[in-house]
Structure formats: C-alpha cells, structure tokens
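Possible regression after last week's pipeline update?

I re-ran a chain I had predicted before the update to compare outputs. Posting the input and the new output here so someone can diff against the archived version. Not blocking, just want to make sure nothing changed silently.
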Amino acid sequence: MSSVTVGFTASFPHKHLTKGKHTFLLPVEPEVERLIGAVVAYWGAYEVRMNSLIWEFAKAMQRTLDKDWDRQEFRRRKDTFKTLAVAYARLMFPDWEKKLAQLADTSGDLHWRRNVVAHGLYAIKPIPTPEGQLSDYIITSTGMVKGKPRSLAIDEPTLTKLWHDIAHLTGELMLFMNHTGA
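New output (post-update):
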C-alpha cells in the first residue's frame, strides 16, 4: 500500500474553544471558508425573497397555498414560485413573464450546487506526483442530487462563480420587486 503526503494549511480561531473538547477542522484556506459562507448567506437571501413573492403573488391572485408551503422542499417551492410568477406577470407585467420563468429555472441549477457546498461530504483528493514528493490536492464536496452523487470542487474559482451567480439571481429578483413595488 502506498501513501501520499499532502501539505495543507488551515486556521481556526481558538478564542471560544473549550479545553478538553474535540474539535473538527475543515482543512480549507480562510478565503475558501469566507466564500462558503457567502454562498450559503446569499442563497438564504434569495430564498427569503422568493418565499415573499410566492406569498404576495398568491395573495394578489387570491390563490390558496398549501398548509406549511414555506416549509416544503425547495423544488416544490420553486415550482410554486414559477407557476404563480408566470401567471401574475402575464396579468400585470407581461414583459417579465419569460424572465421570471428563467429565474425559477436558474434557481434549480444553483440550488443543487449550493446544497452540495453546504451539506455535502468534503474530501481531500491528492493530485498524483512522482513517488515520495509532497502532493498537491483538491478539495471536493459530494452530495446526492436527484438520487445520484454530484461533486463540486471547493476552491476559489468555483465558489466565487457560484456566489456571483446567486447574487445575480437575487439581484434580478430584487429588480422585479422594485419594479413592481412588491
């Protein structure tokens, strides 16, 4: 059995750690940790606004929402959003009908990516090098998406793009809200 030595650095502020307690350390650079937080926080901002619009669309069109609709899995809420948003836009803001449908569709793709970042299993994968040399590595996160494992690289380029894509998605939703007074 061969072994690979991987060198990585990570930091963990110890101000609030308790002596004698075990601690889990995720071996990622501080910038990557920051980006993970940005992905999670910006996704939360999107979902809050999407839920708000679901409520407003249903109220404006006198539609009844399922009990605990706001506790349903994202896919169901996204589908409800798309149905109500398209119907509302068709009546009130026809120029937005296609755009709101696209936002709902885009959110589905970004959602699985965010979930893999937030809830996936992180792994360090060494990059093969000649035997005996310190190996570089990549960090991935793997989660189940529609019953199949999906993985993402946990690195600055991947997380920065995901964060920016979520920020653009939320910005487009905010533009609609500002445009309509919602």
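Follow-up from reviewer: compared with the archived run. The mean pLDDT is 91. Marking as no regression found.
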